[in-house]
């Protein structure tokens, strides 16, 4: 069986408190925490998964870079920085709050697709374990998904129900075109035998030093010393050029001094 290894960026979007962070935590760590903490900016997590296409005799090892977007649709920096290079998305609503589904249709889906164009995505109706409070039904979800040509799945980050299915479904949609065309996207394919998602540069830096530079860069950014922040982030990227979070912070600082 042919084996492929690829890395793809996926964004999770939706209103605040719908459970985006909890879905990622359940999928990546198989954990759940019922304490709600609003996501500030963007959190990036990594997760390996295997997608099999037996009809093509191909197995894809997919490294997902999961971007958990803040739950408010007002942004201090251009949206292009959040959505740049995204190849898929999960739009999350709260099954117990109908307005969160409505906002996907009216705000979140148009917001992203205007920038990314037509990319694979699915809708996750989360908190479906709260059966006596459910306000989102099959009919509304079917109507939304027919409009956008996507699928939906009921999930529960608390119980873990169908969380893996949601990410597997999206992963399969992301990889299918590549497999069917028997091609790899240059610059996105992770080289076989490499340490996926980690720096491929020849240099090295103690982990503590890297974190120190990142914290100094963030402090400089907070103080409005954007050029100092850029210089510090550049030092990190020289040793870890695939650090997406630091790349994002550097771009944010660069925009502040334009």
Walkthrough of the structure:
The chain has two domains: 2-181, P-loop containing nucleotide triphosphate hydrolases (Rossmann fold, 3-Layer(aba) Sandwich), CATH 3.40.50.300; 207-256. 41% of the residues lie in helices and 21% in strands. It has helices spanning 20-29, 80-83, 98-116, 138-148, 163-181, 207-222, 226-239, 244-256, and strands at 2-13, 42-53, 58-69, 86-94, 121-126, 151-154. A six-stranded mixed beta sheet has the order 2-3-1-4-5-6, with helices on both faces. The chain is globular.
From the structure above, extract its key features.
about 260 residues; alpha/beta; Rossmann fold; 2 domains; 6-stranded mixed sheet; 8 helices; 6 strands
Number of domains: 2
Strand content: 15-25%
Please tell me the CATH architecture of the largest domain by its name. Answer: 3-Layer(aba) Sandwich
Q: Tell me the overall shape.
A: globular
Strand order of the largest sheet: 2-3-1-4-5-6
Overall mean pLDDT stands at 82
Rg calc: 19 Å
- CATH topology of the largest domain, what is it called? Rossmann fold
Report the order of strands and helices.
EHEEHEHEHEHHHH
**Number of E strands:** 6
Question: By CATH's scheme, which homologous superfamily of the largest domain applies?
Answer: P-loop containing nucleotide triphosphate hydrolases
Category by helix and strand content: alpha/beta
Residue stretches low in confidence (pLDDT < 50, at least 5 long) are 35-40, 183-203
Please bin the fraction of helical residues. Answer: 40-55%
Distance between the termini: 50 Å
Largest sheet: 6 strands, mixed
The CATH class of the largest domain is identified as Alpha Beta
> What's the number of helices?
8
